[in-house]
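During the second half of the funding period, the structural biology subgroup turned its attention to how the target accommodates small molecules. The most pressing case was flavin-adenine dinucleotide, which had performed well in the primary screen but for which no bound structure existed. We therefore specified the complex as follows and requested a full 3D prediction, including the ligand pose.
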Amino acid sequence: MHRINHYAWRHSARFHSTKSANTTIIAKGVSHRAAAALTITSLTAGYLVGTYQSSSSPEEHQQHERVLPNGLPRTCCQENERKSTLSPEQEKELVQQLRKIVGEDHLVIDGSLLNSKTQAYLKGARLGGAPCLCIVTPEHLHHVVSIVKAVVDAGAVIVPQGANTGLTGGSVPRYSTDSRPIVVLSLKKLNSIFPLDDGKRVCCLAGAGLAQLQLFLQQYFPDRETHSTLGSTFLNPTAAAGVALGSGGTQCRKGPAYTERALYLKVTQNKWKENVVEIVNTLDIEGLEDDPNPRSRLVMDSVPYRVDTWSRWIQEGYAQNFRYSTPNARPARDVHYKERLCAHDENDKQQKQASRISRYNADTSGPEFVRSEGKVILLATVHDTFPKPKQTKTLWLSFDQLETALQFRKQVCLNNPNDVPISCEYLDRDSFDIIDRSGRFLGKMIAFLGTSSPIVSRLWNVKLAIEGAGFPFLVDQWLHFINNAVPPLLPSPIQKLGHKWDHHVVVTVGDFDDTDHDDNSEASNTDRNQNSLTRFEQRLQNFLAQHPSKVETYECSPSQVPALTAFRFVAAPAFRTWCVGEGVQGYSVDYALPVSGGLAPPIDQPQPLRRMRYSHFACNVVHEDLAYARDVDLDAAKYAFKHIVEHDCGGRLPAEHGHGTEYKAPPETQRKWQYLDPLNVLNPGVGQTSEHFQYKTE
Ligand SMILES: Cc1cc2nc3c(=O)[nH]c(=O)nc-3n(C[C@H](O)[C@H](O)[C@H](O)COP(=O)(O)OP(=O)(O)OC[C@H]3O[C@@H](n4cnc5c(N)ncnc54)[C@H](O)[C@@H]3O)c2cc1C
């Protein structure tokens, strides 16, 4: 902690007017009990922190000059005036048309202002805040088709949006050199989930979220699990956005969010230069095959309309009959992921494989809609569900050096594809210290309420609303301050290990009985999947015997596991809280290293004050949060770091958070996106591509 003491800084004067703002916003966002509790604690903290900051010196009031991992203040002070290529009458006409399609209740008109109504759509988890023409929140898939046509014909552009938890700015309007008005298409009201094949798969409409899917499976198929667990699962990110980005998360056996089965829209032009909204259907669901007559103008024949009807029937309690996949349906997950993870041996014939990256966002393999980052509009996706393991075990392992941890990964975890652990998460000392210093409150909430609780995501929205109401640092200052009064999140034996060692891995292993996936090698490997836990333990014992005094392990009881999960999940928010609380600046980077690698990329001068490295260890997907003194040029430091990752370490970035507006997409990815959206009317500017019509340079 002493390393940063001389940068420690007290809080700015913004606090004095917080009380009334907090009260109003909270009253809108959460249930009365939660609101009351939060209001009381916020008021108390507001008072305490207000008292605490009163001694700050004039230069200590320069808080707005530093940069935080969410892009503040670069985006908070931009001009809010919106320029437009359309006349006010044309804009009015477009809004009127959209109102006709979706109805008044599904349209937020004044997208030019960042306020408590628009904040959730205009500001992402880290970036955003630019204005738009309006926000549409349709409830029917066939409305989406009409919306897209209307917007494109009017000469405006669309930013598709799911739950808006994206970290890289791809889901929100952005300041642009192009003046075509932006319509935010929020798909989160389209949130039906349908079981397929007796629950072995699910079809999720574009707004269905991972937490919602978790609850759905718990209720109807308690022996099945979802395809994806992200650090943001508690915020209910959508399954569709996972596919649009190539999101990752913690699940080594399941792989990234990936499917080859989807229903989506593409925008092209025909030879008469008319805009065409093409519906593409690779859902492979019986009864939802392509339109019997694709040329038919009847909306009722279209697949989106038929899915809408199916959705309505299910909501009304009819049509409980299961639907089934068509024979020879395409895969609904990344089938060969586990094999890729285990091809890490640099000396064997697969050396080429070892230098491969397990997953990254710019990967252009797979069907065109995968990792398309808003360049097509996904209406629905099909995902495998996974059988729950018969038995699981969670271990906390602390290592003397990263090299020892990497050997553990290779020898014990990734010994063979059948025995790949369920999850395997790495944290270094700075991650441990910072989460413990600033993440206890949020962690306790997640551990207590669970990752799928809607209360946590509502409280998160309250945080965003407070920040949007002109108090960008208030909640983080409060969280940092109150942390000292909250008991540690982790059980005391792990706290001790955390303070003693520099490198930690939390690994969960299980015994499986995978007999139900017919599209890959697992079915024939059933016997080998069984007893994978015993085999893991044998390998671990051998490893411990070979590395005496270099590793310490602690076996967690099932009741301790939620706290461990929460501890890992709050890493990213804890970093921001810590930077705000300590008065320093910071940035975050998401990258993947070759499957055989994993050492920390070297950093040139200036050295960071703190370097949080936490990773999905088996996949080698790393998140780094780096804190710097306030006089450092953060953009230059970030650029230099990205260069080292890519050019010196053979890594790729971003790995799972998507390019958004934060990362430049490589040429092959840009070419793919241009092919998908030749007019550049969907998510223009993503991956730092041209923002202009047909990708003109200006
Ligand atoms: C605390 C925290 C932890 C996180 N942890 C992880 C993690 O462990 N792993 C990880 O991968 N990510 C993580 N994220 C990032 C984020 O949650 C994921 O990227 C998630 O998949 C985004 O889902 P969303 O519904 O919020 O998408 P949004 O943010 O709404 O959109 C993301 C992108 O997808 C596009 N998009 C959304 N819906 C559609 C659609 N229907 N059709 C076409 N394009 C669409 C958008 O245009 C945008 O480009 C984390 C975020 C937070 C805040």
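Two results from this model are relevant to the next phase. The two ends are 49 Å apart (CA to CA). The chain has three domains: 88-189+675-695, 193-386, 389-517+528-583.
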